[in-house]
Amino acid sequence: MYSGRLAMKPLLFGDLMGGIITTTDEVSNYPGFKKLTGIELADKIKEHAEEYDIWVEHNKIVKVEKLKSHFKVKSEDGKMFKSKTILFATGSKWRKLGVPGEEEFANKGVHYCALCDSFAYKNKVTAIIGGSDTAAKDALVLAQAGKKVYMIYRGEKIRPEHVNLIKIENMIKKGKIEIINNTNVVEIKGDSNGVTHIILDKSYKGSKEFQLDGVFIAIGHIALSDLAKDLGVKLNKKGEIKINRTSETNVPGVYAAGDVGDTVFKQAITGVAEAVLASYSAYEHISKM
To answer: Could you tell me the CA-to-CA distances from 284 to 51, 246, 280 in Å, in that order?
Structure first.
Protein backbone atom coordinates (compact mmCIF):
# COMPACT_ATOMS: atom_id res chain seq x y z
CA MET A 1 0.00 0.00 0.00
CA TYR A 2 2.73 2.48 0.97
CA SER A 3 4.89 1.55 -2.00
CA GLY A 4 1.85 2.21 -4.19
CA ARG A 5 1.24 5.56 -2.50
CA LEU A 6 4.85 6.47 -3.27
CA ALA A 7 4.32 5.52 -6.95
CA MET A 8 7.07 2.90 -6.85
CA LYS A 9 5.28 0.33 -9.07
CA PRO A 10 5.45 -2.43 -6.45
CA LEU A 11 5.27 -6.08 -7.44
CA LEU A 12 4.08 -8.48 -4.72
CA PHE A 13 4.88 -12.19 -4.81
CA GLY A 14 3.31 -14.76 -2.51
CA ASP A 15 1.68 -18.17 -2.48
CA LEU A 16 -0.20 -17.54 0.79
CA MET A 17 -1.40 -13.94 0.80
CA GLY A 18 -1.56 -12.73 4.38
CA GLY A 19 0.79 -15.41 5.69
CA ILE A 20 0.37 -17.18 9.01
CA ILE A 21 -2.00 -14.50 10.33
CA THR A 22 -4.67 -16.09 8.11
CA THR A 23 -4.59 -19.18 10.36
CA THR A 24 -5.47 -17.12 13.45
CA ASP A 25 -9.00 -17.54 14.74
CA GLU A 26 -9.21 -14.21 16.54
CA VAL A 27 -7.21 -10.99 16.23
CA SER A 28 -8.07 -8.54 18.98
CA ASN A 29 -4.88 -6.47 19.23
CA TYR A 30 -4.79 -4.76 15.83
CA PRO A 31 -5.61 -1.03 16.23
CA GLY A 32 -8.93 0.01 14.75
CA PHE A 33 -10.55 -3.42 14.95
CA LYS A 34 -11.82 -4.73 18.28
CA LYS A 35 -12.09 -8.28 16.99
CA LEU A 36 -11.81 -10.05 13.64
CA THR A 37 -10.32 -13.20 12.18
CA GLY A 38 -6.87 -13.35 10.62
CA ILE A 39 -8.39 -13.96 7.20
CA GLU A 40 -10.61 -10.88 7.57
CA LEU A 41 -7.62 -8.72 8.53
CA ALA A 42 -5.55 -9.99 5.60
CA ASP A 43 -8.46 -9.41 3.20
CA LYS A 44 -8.97 -5.84 4.44
CA ILE A 45 -5.28 -5.00 4.01
CA LYS A 46 -5.22 -6.59 0.54
CA GLU A 47 -8.36 -4.68 -0.49
CA HIS A 48 -6.86 -1.42 0.74
CA ALA A 49 -3.56 -2.06 -1.05
CA GLU A 50 -5.36 -2.71 -4.34
CA GLU A 51 -6.63 0.88 -4.27
CA TYR A 52 -3.15 1.75 -5.54
CA ASP A 53 -1.12 0.84 -8.58
CA ILE A 54 0.30 -2.51 -7.48
CA TRP A 55 0.93 -5.78 -9.26
CA VAL A 56 0.24 -9.09 -7.48
CA GLU A 57 1.74 -12.40 -8.58
CA HIS A 58 0.35 -15.50 -6.83
CA ASN A 59 3.66 -17.24 -7.17
CA LYS A 60 6.82 -18.05 -5.25
CA ILE A 61 10.27 -16.62 -5.86
CA VAL A 62 12.94 -19.31 -6.13
CA LYS A 63 16.01 -17.19 -6.88
CA VAL A 64 17.20 -13.62 -6.31
CA GLU A 65 20.38 -12.17 -7.85
CA LYS A 66 22.09 -8.83 -7.31
CA LEU A 67 23.34 -7.24 -10.51
CA LYS A 68 25.20 -3.95 -10.92
CA SER A 69 22.26 -1.55 -10.80
CA HIS A 70 19.29 -3.77 -9.94
CA PHE A 71 18.08 -7.14 -8.71
CA LYS A 72 16.83 -10.03 -10.82
CA VAL A 73 14.26 -12.45 -9.43
CA LYS A 74 13.02 -15.73 -10.82
CA SER A 75 9.57 -17.12 -10.00
CA GLU A 76 8.64 -20.76 -9.56
CA ASP A 77 7.10 -20.88 -13.05
CA GLY A 78 10.32 -19.60 -14.65
CA LYS A 79 9.39 -15.92 -15.15
CA MET A 80 12.12 -13.32 -14.68
CA PHE A 81 11.66 -9.83 -13.18
CA LYS A 82 13.92 -6.87 -12.49
CA SER A 83 13.70 -4.50 -9.53
CA LYS A 84 15.72 -1.70 -7.97
CA THR A 85 14.87 -2.82 -4.43
CA ILE A 86 13.77 -5.97 -2.62
CA LEU A 87 11.61 -6.26 0.51
CA PHE A 88 11.58 -9.65 2.22
CA ALA A 89 8.30 -10.19 4.07
CA THR A 90 8.57 -13.95 3.70
CA GLY A 91 7.52 -14.69 7.27
CA SER A 92 8.16 -18.05 8.86
CA LYS A 93 7.05 -21.67 8.92
CA TRP A 94 6.02 -23.89 11.82
CA ARG A 95 8.86 -25.51 13.74
CA LYS A 96 8.72 -29.32 13.82
CA LEU A 97 8.96 -31.28 17.06
CA GLY A 98 11.44 -33.74 15.55
CA VAL A 99 10.25 -36.94 17.25
CA PRO A 100 9.47 -40.40 15.81
CA GLY A 101 5.97 -40.56 14.36
CA GLU A 102 5.64 -36.83 13.61
CA GLU A 103 6.21 -37.16 9.87
CA GLU A 104 4.42 -40.50 9.64
CA PHE A 105 1.19 -39.11 11.09
CA ALA A 106 1.33 -35.62 9.58
CA ASN A 107 -2.27 -34.61 8.76
CA LYS A 108 -3.37 -37.97 10.18
CA GLY A 109 -3.49 -36.82 13.77
CA VAL A 110 -0.47 -34.49 13.81
CA HIS A 111 -1.20 -30.84 12.97
CA TYR A 112 0.28 -27.35 13.28
CA CYS A 113 -2.80 -25.15 12.85
CA ALA A 114 -5.72 -25.50 15.25
CA LEU A 115 -7.94 -23.14 13.28
CA CYS A 116 -7.33 -25.16 10.12
CA ASP A 117 -7.95 -28.62 11.56
CA SER A 118 -9.92 -28.33 14.81
CA PHE A 119 -13.18 -29.20 13.00
CA ALA A 120 -12.02 -32.83 12.83
CA TYR A 121 -11.78 -33.14 16.62
CA LYS A 122 -15.30 -32.43 17.83
CA ASN A 123 -15.88 -34.18 21.17
CA LYS A 124 -12.39 -35.68 21.01
CA VAL A 125 -9.27 -35.46 23.19
CA THR A 126 -6.29 -33.54 21.83
CA ALA A 127 -2.94 -32.23 23.02
CA ILE A 128 -1.18 -28.96 22.32
CA ILE A 129 2.60 -29.21 22.49
CA GLY A 130 4.00 -25.85 23.62
CA GLY A 131 3.42 -23.09 26.14
CA SER A 132 3.52 -19.84 24.15
CA ASP A 133 0.69 -17.43 23.38
CA THR A 134 0.15 -19.23 20.08
CA ALA A 135 -0.13 -22.55 21.90
CA ALA A 136 -2.67 -21.05 24.32
CA LYS A 137 -4.79 -19.64 21.49
CA ASP A 138 -4.70 -23.01 19.71
CA ALA A 139 -5.81 -24.72 22.93
CA LEU A 140 -8.74 -22.31 23.23
CA VAL A 141 -9.81 -23.02 19.64
CA LEU A 142 -9.70 -26.79 20.21
CA ALA A 143 -11.53 -26.50 23.52
CA GLN A 144 -14.53 -24.90 21.82
CA ALA A 145 -15.54 -28.14 20.15
CA GLY A 146 -13.31 -30.79 21.68
CA LYS A 147 -13.93 -32.95 24.72
CA LYS A 148 -10.67 -31.98 26.42
CA VAL A 149 -7.34 -30.35 25.55
CA TYR A 150 -4.04 -31.06 27.29
CA MET A 151 -1.29 -28.45 27.04
CA ILE A 152 2.04 -30.27 27.33
CA TYR A 153 4.93 -27.91 27.95
CA ARG A 154 8.59 -28.53 28.77
CA GLY A 155 8.81 -25.40 30.95
CA GLU A 156 7.73 -24.61 34.49
CA LYS A 157 4.60 -22.71 33.42
CA ILE A 158 2.93 -21.59 30.20
CA ARG A 159 3.58 -18.01 29.03
CA PRO A 160 0.66 -16.61 27.00
CA GLU A 161 -0.45 -12.97 26.98
CA HIS A 162 -2.39 -12.07 30.12
CA VAL A 163 -5.76 -11.90 28.37
CA ASN A 164 -5.32 -15.41 26.97
CA LEU A 165 -4.01 -16.75 30.28
CA ILE A 166 -7.28 -15.67 31.90
CA LYS A 167 -9.24 -17.51 29.18
CA ILE A 168 -7.11 -20.63 29.72
CA GLU A 169 -7.70 -20.49 33.48
CA ASN A 170 -11.45 -20.27 32.90
CA MET A 171 -11.32 -23.33 30.67
CA ILE A 172 -9.29 -25.19 33.30
CA LYS A 173 -12.04 -24.50 35.84
CA LYS A 174 -14.57 -25.96 33.39
CA GLY A 175 -12.47 -29.07 32.94
CA LYS A 176 -11.91 -28.39 29.23
CA ILE A 177 -8.16 -27.72 29.44
CA GLU A 178 -5.45 -29.30 31.58
CA ILE A 179 -1.77 -28.28 31.70
CA ILE A 180 1.09 -30.76 32.03
CA ASN A 181 4.31 -28.86 32.78
CA ASN A 182 7.99 -29.92 32.80
CA THR A 183 7.21 -32.68 30.32
CA ASN A 184 8.31 -33.53 26.77
CA VAL A 185 6.71 -35.66 24.08
CA VAL A 186 9.33 -38.15 22.84
CA GLU A 187 7.26 -40.18 20.36
CA ILE A 188 3.91 -40.13 18.55
CA LYS A 189 2.22 -43.47 17.93
CA GLY A 190 -0.83 -44.64 16.01
CA ASP A 191 -2.28 -47.07 13.53
CA SER A 192 -3.73 -47.00 10.02
CA ASN A 193 -6.51 -44.69 11.19
CA GLY A 194 -4.19 -42.10 12.69
CA VAL A 195 -2.71 -41.08 16.05
CA THR A 196 -3.73 -43.17 19.06
CA HIS A 197 -1.30 -42.05 21.77
CA ILE A 198 1.94 -40.28 22.60
CA ILE A 199 4.93 -41.23 24.76
CA LEU A 200 6.08 -38.77 27.44
CA ASP A 201 9.55 -38.50 28.96
CA LYS A 202 8.08 -38.83 32.46
CA SER A 203 5.05 -40.52 33.92
CA TYR A 204 1.73 -38.74 34.10
CA LYS A 205 -0.83 -40.34 36.42
CA GLY A 206 1.28 -43.49 36.54
CA SER A 207 2.09 -43.94 32.85
CA LYS A 208 4.31 -42.50 30.13
CA GLU A 209 1.76 -43.55 27.50
CA PHE A 210 -0.92 -40.92 26.91
CA GLN A 211 -4.07 -41.80 24.98
CA LEU A 212 -5.56 -39.13 22.70
CA ASP A 213 -7.04 -38.49 19.27
CA GLY A 214 -4.82 -35.74 17.89
CA VAL A 215 -1.65 -33.73 18.49
CA PHE A 216 -1.18 -30.04 17.64
CA ILE A 217 2.39 -28.73 17.69
CA ALA A 218 2.96 -25.08 18.59
CA ILE A 219 6.63 -24.69 19.48
CA GLY A 220 7.55 -21.65 17.43
CA HIS A 221 8.55 -20.81 13.90
CA ILE A 222 11.54 -20.87 11.58
CA ALA A 223 12.29 -17.72 9.58
CA LEU A 224 12.04 -18.15 5.79
CA SER A 225 15.26 -16.30 5.02
CA ASP A 226 17.13 -18.56 2.56
CA LEU A 227 16.64 -16.22 -0.42
CA ALA A 228 18.00 -13.29 1.60
CA LYS A 229 20.96 -15.35 2.78
CA ASP A 230 21.85 -16.15 -0.84
CA LEU A 231 22.11 -12.39 -1.46
CA GLY A 232 24.64 -11.97 1.33
CA VAL A 233 22.13 -10.52 3.79
CA LYS A 234 23.26 -10.97 7.41
CA LEU A 235 21.20 -13.26 9.63
CA ASN A 236 21.23 -13.80 13.39
CA LYS A 237 21.71 -17.19 15.08
CA LYS A 238 18.01 -17.95 14.66
CA GLY A 239 18.21 -17.41 10.91
CA GLU A 240 16.28 -14.12 11.10
CA ILE A 241 17.25 -11.19 8.89
CA LYS A 242 19.10 -8.44 10.74
CA ILE A 243 17.43 -5.04 10.21
CA ASN A 244 17.86 -1.56 11.64
CA ARG A 245 15.15 0.85 12.80
CA THR A 246 14.25 1.70 9.21
CA SER A 247 14.05 -1.99 8.13
CA GLU A 248 17.32 -1.83 6.15
CA THR A 249 19.63 -4.84 5.90
CA ASN A 250 23.40 -4.78 5.36
CA VAL A 251 22.84 -5.00 1.57
CA PRO A 252 21.86 -1.64 -0.02
CA GLY A 253 18.40 -1.81 -1.56
CA VAL A 254 17.35 -4.86 0.46
CA TYR A 255 14.86 -4.62 3.34
CA ALA A 256 12.90 -6.94 5.60
CA ALA A 257 9.71 -6.78 7.65
CA GLY A 258 7.57 -9.05 9.81
CA ASP A 259 8.35 -12.48 11.23
CA VAL A 260 11.41 -12.99 9.02
CA GLY A 261 13.14 -10.03 10.72
CA ASP A 262 15.18 -10.14 13.94
CA THR A 263 12.85 -7.98 16.04
CA VAL A 264 12.13 -9.49 19.46
CA PHE A 265 8.43 -8.63 19.64
CA LYS A 266 6.56 -10.01 16.64
CA GLN A 267 2.96 -8.95 16.08
CA ALA A 268 0.84 -8.15 13.02
CA ILE A 269 0.97 -4.44 13.82
CA THR A 270 4.76 -4.37 14.27
CA GLY A 271 5.25 -6.23 10.99
CA VAL A 272 3.03 -3.69 9.23
CA ALA A 273 5.03 -0.83 10.73
CA GLU A 274 8.32 -2.38 9.62
CA ALA A 275 6.96 -2.76 6.08
CA VAL A 276 5.94 0.91 6.00
CA LEU A 277 9.45 1.92 7.09
CA ALA A 278 10.95 -0.44 4.51
CA SER A 279 8.81 1.09 1.75
CA TYR A 280 9.91 4.60 2.66
CA SER A 281 13.56 3.51 2.94
CA ALA A 282 13.30 1.92 -0.51
CA TYR A 283 11.78 5.14 -1.86
CA GLU A 284 14.68 7.17 -0.43
CA HIS A 285 17.17 4.68 -1.89
CA ILE A 286 15.68 4.89 -5.38
CA SER A 287 15.47 8.67 -5.22
CA LYS A 288 19.23 8.85 -4.77
CA MET A 289 20.05 6.52 -7.67
So the answer is: 23, 11, 6
C-alpha dist (Å) from residue 2 to 117, 272, 273, 281: 35, 10, 11, 11
Hey, is 90 helix, strand or coil? Answer: coil
Residue by residue, DSSP assigns 253-289 as: TEEE-GGGB--SS--HHHHHHHHHHHHHHHHHHHHT-
Tell me: the pLDDT tens digits for 130-175? 999 999 999 999 999 899 999 999 999 999 999 999 999 999 999 9
Cβ-contact 253, 86 below 8 angstroms: yes
Ordered by where they begin, the domains of the chain are: 2-93+221-287 (3.50.50.60), 96-217 (3.50.50.60)
Least confidently predicted of 16-25, 72-81, 264-273: 16-25
